[in-house]
Amino acid sequence: MALVNSKKMFEQAYKNGYAIGAFNVNNMEIVQGITEACKEENAPVILQVSKGARAYANHTYLVKLVEAAVIECPDIPVVLHLDHGPDFETCKSCIDGGFTSVMIDYSSHPLEENIEETAKVVEYAHKYNVTVEGELGTLAGIEDEVSHAVGSYTRPEDVEKFVKGTGVDSLAIAIGTSHGAYKFKPEQCTRNAQGILVPPALRFDILKEVSKRLPNFPIVLHGSSSVPQNYVKMINENGGKMPNAIGVPEEQLREAAKLSVCKINIDSDLRLAMTGTIRQFFNEHPDKFDPREYLKPARANIKELVRHKLRDVLGCAGKADECK
Fold this sequence. Notes:
The protein is α/β, with parallel strands linked by helices.
């Protein structure tokens, strides 16, 4: 099937208590690992591209990689989404270039400016049957070119005005997630009996209040990688230095998916799986130099990571048919 927008996916996800995985892509192996997992699990998927990914891999290459995945996985619905579009022109370029969904992130601007810019994107996108995600509140952390030293929670009292004033199809909110692999500082966490850092709980009170004010409206969580400790350990044991890297507990993400969260963004976990695998390969095979030999196991570990997310975290395994 051809690329689709996110409208039907979110309708089904909201109604049935699961979330669609939105996985960031940068190269062929990442695209293959994600979509092969979705094909085997019969799961819908959102492949999202950041401004940084477009600068790295080139818009055309990324679109063609995703189109190739659609050909290879014809039975699963696939959305091609712009992640953190910084302005109208970037969103317009992606819409004109074949994307089926875009995000305009004007959340660091005053509310009225955010509404004005987002509405402008919505007006253009809807002419081409492209869905639009907006954002209220800001996430701390660093991911590609998105960087905020301090985050701010979404104000529930703003969401109705924002959605009504913009016409967006989904809304990203800030309830305690953050970008990158260091989502929480050690001083924000407690330690369990094994000495492992335990992060603070997400602000489900904000999520529930937003859901009350926006009934049946799809909510999005950014910065939702769980930072698998097996890959952090793999990196550190093979020359890396990632002390105190910690992510969002998967059980909290599953709970969010049962509520109004219909899209959960995952990027850092893919990077950790790829980097850990490659570091281990180089450490164990210092004589090897063929990229295919280390990218193949990296792709395989990305695939298994995504399969786990689809089944055990997002709850969207087996849901491809109802999202078409």
